[in-house]
Write a sequence for this structure.
């Protein structure tokens, strides 16, 4: 498998992508190769500084860089950016996946323009894994679409169904529609109409779920529009940071508490791991006719390594083929 990694995307470039790529090659299975795309001179200098060389790691030059604050419309004009070059490489059949911690809007827009959509999917969606009181669940869309229609939410649910089966090992995942109440008539026009579509579908739809139900693990998949999903994602990230900070401050308040914290360290380590986005790497953009993984701009090398692993699994488990099969099954049912 050939995976293109944007070496010019993220807060620390090209250091973090390079470190993440090296970690992936050293730790993960040897069934893939990585192509670092970006400023070749800077990337090779970074590799030389780490005295790292491996035949499974190569560099592809792309002279332009898309800034984190650039508008997607402006970013699309940069035909030789690391994002554009990397995605074209996949489109031309020279790679199987693309990963970037760069400008999210630019990655989404360029992925859609270059790779196109899976036939039958009206809008792509960003999917992310959320920790819950039970098993992890997935939420989508968390930012690809600001304005959605009922049919879009149905397609999100279909893609989420496939993703949950393959990545969460849920044979018949429960799907919930995010709303302000459990009753079918609750919410705005989008929610009411989407509820009707989901209820009539062959999916295992359990009805409306409220925001608090996400962390309770009521559903394996929570479907919402990208505006609401992105707000939830950003809020949850800040709450996790707040909780960890409060625990740290509370345990440092006295010698007795510090001693108690030392005894509880294994428990805190498990908690931190379960809440850490780095463990999940990147968020796949489902619905595009290819594999495009979007990472947090502040991703660490560990997060990049795990994003590479996520790309591997997405390719190996043929997620897009599974989505096509599911769409065909729904059409025929």
């Amino acid at each position: 498998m050939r995976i293109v990694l944007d070496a010019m995307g993220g807060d620390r470039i090209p250091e973090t992508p390079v470190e993440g790529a090296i970690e992936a090659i050293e730790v993960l299975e040897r069934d893939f190769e990585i192509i670092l795309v970006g400023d070749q001179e800077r990337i090779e200098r970074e590799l030389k500084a780490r005295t790292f060389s491996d035949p499974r790691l190569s560099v592809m030059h792309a002279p332009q860089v898309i800034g984190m604050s650039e508008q997607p419309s402006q970013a699309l004009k940069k035909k030789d950016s690391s994002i554009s070059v990397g995605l074209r490489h996949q489109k031309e059949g020279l790679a199987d996946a693309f990963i970037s911690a760069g400008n999210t809007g630019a990655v989404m827009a360029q992925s859609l323009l270059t790779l196109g959509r899976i036939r039958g999917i009206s809008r792509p969606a960003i999917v992310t894994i959320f920790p819950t009181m039970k098993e992890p669940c997935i939420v989508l869309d968390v930012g690809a679409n600001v304005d959605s229609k009922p049919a879009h939410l149905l397609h999100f649910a279909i893609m989420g169904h496939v993703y949950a089966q393959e990545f969460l090992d849920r044979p018949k995942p429960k799907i919930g529609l995010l709303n302000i109440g459990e009753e079918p008539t609750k919410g705005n026009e989008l929610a009411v109409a989407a509820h009707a579509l989901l209820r009539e579908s062959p999916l295992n739809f359990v009805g409306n779920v409220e925001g608090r139900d996400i962390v309770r693990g009521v559903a394996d998949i929570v479907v919402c529009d990208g505006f609401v999903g992105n707000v939830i994602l950003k809020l949850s990230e800040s709450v996790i940071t707040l909780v960890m900070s409060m625990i740290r401050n509370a345990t440092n308040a006295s010698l007795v508490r510090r001693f108690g914290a030392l005894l509880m360290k294994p428990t805190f380590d498990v908690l931190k791991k379960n809440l850490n986005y780095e463990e999940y790497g990147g968020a796949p953009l489902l619905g595009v006719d290819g594999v495009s993984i979007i990472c947090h701009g502040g991703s660490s090398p560990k997060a990049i390594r795990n994003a590479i692993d996520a790309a591997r699994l997405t390719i190996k488990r043929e997620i897009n083929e599974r989505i096509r099969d599911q769409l065909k099954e729904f059409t025929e049912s």
Observations:
- The first helix runs from residue 15 to 27.
- The chain has two domains: 1-121+287-317, 123-278.
- Residues 139 and 179 are 13 Å apart (CA to CA).
- The mean pLDDT is 90.
